[in-house]
Specification:
GMP Synthetase, Chain A, domain 3; three-stranded mixed β-sheet; alpha+beta
């Protein structure tokens, strides 16, 4: 029996929606609009990979934020497995924020 294939673009969209409900505890903007999400990739099998960063290596949320991201991704319909890679290259800076985030934070 062949494995069921998911619509990867639909699942990626669902993951992005879920990530827009995750917030850095020190900044009142979701992590997607902050530019902390570098990549969302979904395989036809439903396996999802999220590459993300944090505002700083010393971020107080360094322990809990990636775990929260993984839990939210796993909760998206069509996701069969989730992996979150925290990367530091390229380093995050304010230019990575969306226009909406910049407006919300007064930049």
């Amino acid at each position: 029996m062949d494995a069921v294939s998911v619509n990867t673009s639909d699942v990626e969209g669902g993951i992005i929606e879920a990530l827009q409900t995750c917030y850095d505890p020190e900044i009142p903007v979701n992590i997607y609009e902050l530019g902390l999400i570098y990549e969302v990739k979904v395989e036809p099998s439903g396996s999802a990979l999220v590459r993300m960063t944090l505002t700083s290596p010393n971020c107080p949320a360094a322990a809990e934020l990636p775990a929260e991201v993984e839990a939210k991704v796993r909760g998206v319909s069509g996701v069969t497995d989730a992996k979150v890679d925290v990367v530091w290259d390229p380093p995050w800076d304010q230019s990575m924020m969306s226009e909406a985030a910049k407006l919300q934070l007064g930049f």
